[in-house]
Amino acid sequence: MGNSDDWCDMGRLDGFGGGGGFSVRELCARAMSIVYEQHYSIIGPFEGTAHITVLLDRTDDRALRHRLLLLLKVLMKVLSNVEACVLVGGCVLAVDLLTTVHEVSERTVIPLQSNLIAASAFMEPLKEWLFIDMDGAQAGPVEKDAIRRFWSKKTIDWTTKCWSSGMPDWKRCASSSLNGEELARDGGIQLLATLLSRCMCVVQPTTHGNEPATIIVTNVMRTFSSLSQFESARTEVLGLPGLVEDIVHCTELVLAPATVDAALPTIAHLCVSSELQDALLKVGVLWYLLPLLLEYDSTVEESDTTEAHVVGVSVQTAKNLHAVLAARALSRICGITSESETPYNQDATDALKALLTPKLASMLKDELPNDLLIKLNSNLELPEIIWNSSIRAELLKFVDQKRAALAPDGSHSLTDSHAFIYEALSKEILIGNVYLRVYNDQPDFEISEPEFFCVALVEFISSIVRNQFANSLMRGSNHDTSKLESDHHDDKSYNEEKATSEPVTYKEDLGVVSNLQLGLTSLQNLLTSDPNLASVFSSKEKLLPLFECFSVPVSSGSNIPQLCLSVLSCLTTHAPCLEAMVADGSSVLLLQMLHSAPICREGVLHVLYALASTPELAWAAAKHGGVVYILKLLLLLHEEVPLPQRAAAASLLGKLVAQPMHGPRVAITLARFFPYGLVSIIRDGPGEAVVNALEQTTETPELVWTPAMAASLAAQVATMASDVYQEQMKGRVFDWDVPEQVSSQQEMRDEPQVGGIYVRLFLKDPKFPLRNPKKFLEGLLDQYLSSIAATHHDTHGPDPELPLLLSAALVSLLRVHPALADHVGYLGYVPKFLSAVAFEARREKCPQKNLECQMDHLKVRITRHSTSCAEAMAATSVGTNQVVPLLMKAIGWQGGSILALETLKRVVVAGNRSRDALVAQGLRVGLIEVLLGLLDWRAGGRQGFSSEMKWNESEASIGRVLAIEVLHAFATEGAHCTKVHDILDSSEVWAAYKDQKHDLFLPSNAQIASAGIAGLIESSLPSSSRLTYSLTAPPPHPNSSKPPAAITSDL
């Protein structure tokens, strides 16, 4: 047949030229395939294998190409034929056949891609190829020889997009769905799997990439990298378990980086189904990919791998690429990638969480894994990541062990991987993917999932507390059992058993306490850095573990209670947490800690102060003895309590008193212990002022307090607190009330008090700045009327001087605070006073003292120009006492006439809107005639009232002046002024007085009196000598019945 070159030139062979030659060659190839397939063992190696391979490479006939492929398939049954095929480029040709663009109906002749890359000399090159270069720009059109040169120079590669005439769209050189589907239909995947399996038998991790077998593996893997993107091809791969294993093993060919480059994307593409994921895991894909992650070097930048002087850099660049591809493959195996949807695989995810630690494993889902790879190859100690060289070494050791460990069926298992713990991390507490020890050392570190971490911490604390309770119960049960059994042994054996068991229990308790401290400290740091996480504790279920921590038995030096209180203090900034804290009665526990846990008082006070705005805590303080615990802290006795804690206790009481719903009950409870003045100081605050007030000796109208009183009360409160605590420790609901005998005010028990004000002390200093003078006024009015009513029924009452004392206090109060007079009218006390006066008027003999008290009070209120009181006097209804008749009757009382006249003058002033009603009352009872009778100076006059009054000279002058002013007021313009004028005009007495000035009838000292009429009235009033602070009576003077000087001269 001649030499090989001539033989391959189909146009020069006899019988093969022309159009019919193609069919002859096809028949020959088919015949040779049939014969060799049946008798290859007899024929042996075929010397023309290389020529058949070259012919297949250069032909452009589809039918002949198909027959030659079938012939080569048969020839591959003999190993020497395989070697001959490989030597002339058979592997490259096979890859070209797999990756060539598919023929379309518009093109009658389309050469293979291999024909384009290695075109035969007799073919006319066509400039029909376009491609996208590395910069993203379109290049071409170029001929096929140019494509080959670009390929050799690696200007284009398997990922380059190209286009030629007849293609509907740009295709990658490495992918064509039609070619892949056709290859799968024709059994190509099985053939490639067999070829790969045979080559992998001779290829080892130490085999160089230039070896023929390695080159075959590389090209096959490149083919599978493209085919694995198609569903039909992946279905074929799933039926070939050996192929999956070979693909995974290709990742360890470190001397053939191109093979690894193709194997890793193939693994990633195969992970689109859970079946293929499981198949990859069974062949140990994790143990081959994990080491690749640990070969990343962030200091090496990507460079041109063709430059010889940076060969070392190129190797590391390849390793970096492999690390990136391995990370992406692992993310797809777990199903956590963000690029595309792959099934979630729980086994793989759990294994990687254990092997890479949770935080690093979660970073696999990042689109760019560079940050993960940098951390995996660094030494870090962060709250979420602890990773160093010893951990990497331990991981590689474990991976080697897992590669060698196979199940009986030859597969790899992940079961023991889920529980894998690094030696360096065995003592670390990992909660919510956070290492508690490191986080407590770095509390400012920003946690990636703070809410998840917070919930995990609560569950961790809850598990510790509940397990501790369970263990305590079990130890108690075992202890009882051992105690019963010890009766059958001697004392020595029992003591030895006890001695050996106690240290173990103590160590376990220390571990529990240490873990609990770590958890609480982490929770405190987390809530401090992110206060919004307090919303996690809005339910009682989340708060309950924190309160249960107070019941964990710990040594006196443990800070667990303080940590719990710090956490609760952080939660008090969130309103729903406050409601949850007091919802289950936990506030009583906090109040008890003020008594039972002195070391925790500061934290308890801080939490209680935040809770003091809730009605539940105020109720617990008043009803369940909480006030006693707080008072014990406030009243220093035998133990030293820091001043800030005492001030905080005082502030807590003040806030409880101010609570709208149950604060008044707390105030009433405090009033059983303290004077009203101290209760007011506690209410007003601040706490430091309360402490100062308790330590000082004070004597004011509002407060009488001495250190002796404080010491006495402190002793009583301390005893009471112990009794309350013992009752509460019995486990029952204890309703507490202040015993009657408890008081700090025994010395002042007999001193009259009104509204918390000591009346006698107030009269000594009426200008003392009262905290609430209005309340004092109301109390005085109520008690005054009550005391007057008591004298109506029992003349010899318990304190006959009380009405006079109260009236004097009223006089002094209204004198210092004149604006309060209107308040008296608004509160409706005027009708009550009128009723009291009316009752006195109906008695056969009016007690002088009661009369003076009532008239004093009425006079002061009216002389302070209280329009509201004047109107209230006139606003009487049917069946009630009217003021004018009462005052007219009071004119005849000894000592009350001047006051009655002054009151009449004030109630009929022009500003009184009820003035006409008062004038009508006066007309009905003949008041005008009575007043004219008082003015009649003539001895033995018709009325003779003046002589009957038994006035002295001063009183007579004042009385005449007041009578004249009352008559002038009655005659002022109004509804009844005409009738009044008629009466006055017909009176001779009024004719003598109407045109005179009233100051002509005053005594000589009235000309210089700064107080005017009111001052003269006050200086002339009689009073009791038994009260040193009441009004002083003027000296007695003989009565005078002389007429006015002006009238005498006229007469």
Summarize the structure in words.
The N and C termini lie far apart (185 Å). Mean pLDDT is 75; it is low at 1-21, 101-125, 303-311, 473-508, 844-851, 856-865, 939-944 and 1001-1051. A hairpin with a 5-residue loop joins β1 (129-132) and β2 (138-142). With 1051 residues, the protein is mostly helical. The protein is built from 54 helices and 12 strands.
What's the shape?
Answer: elongated
Helical/strand content category: mainly alpha
**How are the strands of the biggest sheet laid out side by side?**
2-1-3-4
- Radius of gyration of CA atoms, rounded to a whole number: 56 Å
* Strand proportion: under 5%
Q: Are there runs of 5+ residues with pLDDT below 50, and where?
A: 1-21, 101-125, 303-311, 473-508, 844-851, 856-865, 939-944, 1001-1051
Question: Mean pLDDT score, rounded?
Answer: 75
Distance between the termini: 185 Å
Report the biggest beta sheet as strand number plus sense, adding barrel if it closes: 4 strands, antiparallel
Count the E strands: 12
Helix segment tally:
54
Specify the helix fraction band.
55-70%
